[in-house]
Automatic annotation (TrEMBL):
Signal peptide: 1-22
Matching InterPro entries: CAP_sf
Protein name: Uncharacterized protein
Gene3D superfamilies to which the protein is assigned, alphabetical: CAP
Keywords noted in UniProt: Membrane, Signal, Transmembrane, Transmembrane helix
Membrane-crossing residue ranges in chain numbering: 204-223
Source organism: Coffea canephora (Robusta coffee)
């Protein structure tokens, strides 16, 4: 019985380690920026710099569009220029005088949580129009936000913002570049910009599975 118990502990820790490392090794918004830059360099275009200020604004854009995702994963959502400067920038702590020029945006949604490469080719850059936007020479920076409308299910919303403004002097976040902490979602440009809240609940549910396994184990041995 002790042996089974030890085996169970080992299994559970392996399981947890695997889950934690597979699910939380990176930020999917940063992975998407990497895919965009790989695609651009493959077409001999310069890489875009990954701007956290623009990324946070993109997260606000994704959040604003959450009600506009249809059941067949289509979306029609066009936040106004005023929304960008009057709502999104202040919500992020982007210093308003540094708000640059948005030279393109792509919004997409899906009811399933897709991998970054699925989101890239099946949601964001699947038609000619968005693909030509991806290869536009006037962009200098990019920011991506990913928002999940409900705690444990979709729809998931992606917003990609391109800017033609000069890198490093635009979309500056206050509080020494930290800006205002976001409670929900993920955005690109900071190494760890997925909200902690989401992560902890995900990990907690796997811990719960292990606790359940232990309870079942003890019940079954005590009934013997
Ligand atoms: C979302 O859809 C509604 C209803 O079609 C529309 O009135 C609204 O403008 C859309 N939101 C945005 C930000 O485009
Ligand atoms: C690239 O974007 C700029 C700014 O948005 C636009 O004026 C221009 O027409 C675009 N170029 C192409 C080739 O689509
Ligand atoms: C770039 O993205 C487009 C649109 O998804 C895709 O058709 C093309 O194959 C990609 N190119 C490379 C080199 O990844
Ligand atoms: C922007 O800042 C980064 C890091 O501070 C630096 O490596 C990069 O050269 C700067 N880019 C421009 C265009 O100034």
């Amino acid at each position: 019985m002790l042996k089974t118990f030890v085996n169970l502990i080992v299994l559970c820790s392996l399981f947890l380690a695997a889950v934690v490392s597979s699910k939380h090794h990176g930020n999917p918004a940063d992975d998407l920026v990497e895919l965009i830059n790989m695609n651009r360099t493959a077409h001999k275009l310069p890489e875009l710099s990954n701007s956290p200020g623009l990324g946070c604004v993109a997260l606000q854009c994704a959040e604003e569009c959450q009600a506009n995702c249809t059941s067949d994963n289509a979306i029609n959502c066009h936040p106004s220029a005023d929304d960008f400067t009057e709502i999104f920038a202040p919500n992020c702590g982007v210093e308003l005088p540094t708000f640059g020029t948005i030279s393109g945006h792509v919004v997409g949604c899906h009811h399933k949580d897709l991998t970054p490469s699925e989101a890239f080719s099946n949601v964001l850059f699947r038609d000619k129009k968005s693909f030509s936007l991806l290869g536009n020479r006037s962009h200098n920076e990019v920011g991506i936000g990913i928002f999940r409308a409900h705690k444990h299910k979709g729809p998931y919303l992606w917003c990609v913002l391109f800017s033609s403004s000069q890198t490093n002097t635009t979309f500056v976040l206050d509080d020494l570049g930290r800006g205002i902490k976001q409670i929900k979602g993920c955005y690109s440009g900071l190494s760890d910009a997925c909200s902690r809240q989401n992560r902890n609940t995900d990990q907690a549910s796997y811990v719960n599975i292990c606790v359940m396994l232990f309870i079942i184990f003890f019940l079954s041995t005590s009934l013997r």
